[in-house]
Write a structure and sequence with these properties.
By secondary structure, the protein is of the alpha/beta class. The chain has one domain: 4-Layer Sandwich (Purple Acid Phosphatase, chain A, domain 2), CATH 3.60.21. The chain has 15 helices and 13 strands. The strands form three sheets. The chain has a six-stranded mixed sheet. The protein has a five-stranded mixed sheet with strand order 5-6-9-11-10, with helices on one face. α7 packs antiparallel against α11 and α7 packs antiparallel against α12. The longest helix is centred in the C-terminal third of the chain and has 27 residues. The two termini are 33 Å apart. The C terminus is likely disordered.
């Protein structure tokens, strides 16, 4: 093996902390100590083998959509949607400060990890649909200050607006190829051209602010299922009241998607929303939905006029083709697999266009590794969220969340991609899981590792010699 290594992680969704969902129900990341130890193991390998390491963070590292732009943050307080909508550079830096303060263990570990002396260690950040605020130069500069990546250490922190393509490796978050609800027309420059001091949030981002930020306080798992339209289908099966709320909220964001045009579609959606918004009508819908196969198919057809285009990847949407199957569970699974198929198609194109042997996406929170016939490897890193162990296609597991009562035990899978190079400098990818290694490691040991690591760094510093 040559003297370099790349590690790719994705979809941490760091909020304002603390890393405890009982204290902050909008916090999705509680694996702070695990990540600190993960970086310690990489650093130890780097030092032992004199190996350069690049950590690529493939989008949605930050959860800007669930962090309010406030001066004094109270994790127990319910903030109005307006506190989350301002996406200006000033508000984005304010949010970043709350995130770095709420997860100091993570950012201390990153600051300790990077190293300008040999063996060199650096971090590359790719922005995703939940941390599009990384577009702003003041946000990038503030993060440099937090990680100490300034001066001679500036080259240790790199930013990519959409993707990294080098050394036959292609890494992109992937939301542009998934559901249309989370797609930008110009993700390289996501500013609102009518108001250049603000970002143009995709419909899915607006929906997260207006809907998930309120419901997640009671249903802390609500925004963990990808695509989010699969959550609507699952809830039709197990929690009709929640499904009604979600469908109504989605309908309000349809104009932002530029979908649903045409009098027939509008009339059908308007009628459905009127029924769902009325308590009596909603109860009747719920009763008929459970009793009548024909009614269930009809409701799926009408709901599908909204959900199918929202979930369909670019170029796939073909309304008014309705999902007529009586099982909402199978419709959800179909949407999940359709997005996976879309990413496979994109990977095949990228392999040719970028001469890539390793292609890595994130976004779906579903870890997998697939090798094509030509030897190209497609990997999804998965997520380190506290419910990262739930497969979106595993309906039985999600039924548990709908039907059980809190507290829900975390189900972690600390998955990541490791890329080594052979003697010909050709990259080879593995999908690995850090979960098993963490089982026998206490928080006290991780804290001790951090202290010893900082001491070693201080002793090795030129300023102390």
């Amino acid at each position: 093996m040559s003297g370099k290594l790349k590690i790719v992680v994705s979809d941490f969704h760091l909020g304002a902390g603390p890393p405890d969902i009982t204290q902050n129900p909008l916090e999705d990341f509680i694996a702070d100590q695990a990540f600190a130890h993960f970086l310690d193991t990489l650093r130890a390998e780097s030092e032992m083998d004199n190996k350069e390491v690049e950590l690529i963070i493939n989008g949605d590292f930050f959860e800007f959509l669930q962090v309010p732009a406030v001066d004094e943050f109270d994790p127990q307080r319910t903030y109005p949607p307006e506190a989350y909508r301002d996406s200006s550079p000033t508000s984005s830096v304010k949010r970043l400060d709350l995130i770095t303060s709420g997860h100091s263990t993570v950012f201390d570990a990153l600051a300790d990890f990077i190293q300008v002396e040999a063996p060199r260690r650096r971090v590359t950040l790719i922005k995703g649909n939940h941390d599009v605020n990384l577009f702003w130069p003041p946000v990038k500069q503030r993060l440099r200050e937090v990680l100490g990546a300034i001066g001679r250490r500036a080259s240790l922190l790199l930013f990519a607006e959409r993707y990294v393509s080098r050394e036959s490796i292609y890494v992109e978050h992937g939301h542009q190829y998934a559901e249309q609800l989370n797609r930008w027309d110009n993700f390289d420059d996501p500013r609102d051209m009518d108001n250049p001091d603000q970002l143009l949030y995709a419909a899915g981002s607006q929906f997260a602010i207006d809907f998930f930020n309120s419901v997640e306080r009671d249903q802390t798992w609500a925004d963990s299922l990808k695509p989010l339209t699969a959550l609507a289908w699952y809830s039709l099966e197990w929690d009709f009241s929640f499904a009604a709320r979600m469908l109504l909220a989605l309908a309000r964001h349809m104009p932002a998607m530029g979908l649903g045009a045409g009098s027939q579609a509008n009339e059908s959606l308007e009628e459905l929303c009127q029924q769902l918004g009325d308590a009596v009508g909603r109860q009747e819908l719920s009763e008929h939905y459970g009793d009548s196969l024909g009614f269930r198919r009809d409701l799926h057809t009408r709901a599908g006029q909204m959900l199918v285009p929202a979930a369909s990847p670019p170029g796939v949407f073909a309304w008014p083709t309705p999902p007529a199957d009586e099982s909402a569970i199978e419709i959800a699974r179909t949407e999940i697999e359709e997005i996976h198929t879309s990413m496979r198609r994109v990977a095949a194109r990228v392999a040719d266009a970028e001469d890539a042997r390793v292609i890595i996406f994130g976004h779906t929170h579903r870890p997998y590794l697939e090798t094509f016939k030509d030897g190209t490897t497609l990997v999804n890193c998965g997520t380190w969220q506290w419910l990262g162990g739930y497969d979106p296609a595993d309906a039985d597991a999600w039924r548990e969340l709908f039907t059980s009562h809190p507290p829900i035990e975390p189900r972690h899978r600390l998955t990541y991609t490791r890329i080594d190079y052979d003697a010909q400098n050709i990259p080879h990818a593995q999908l690995l899981d850090f979960t098993e290694e963490m089982k026998n490691i206490s928080d006290e040991q991780v804290t001790l590792d951090r202290i010893l690591g900082r001491l070693r760094q201080t002793l090795d510093s030129p300023d102390t010699q």
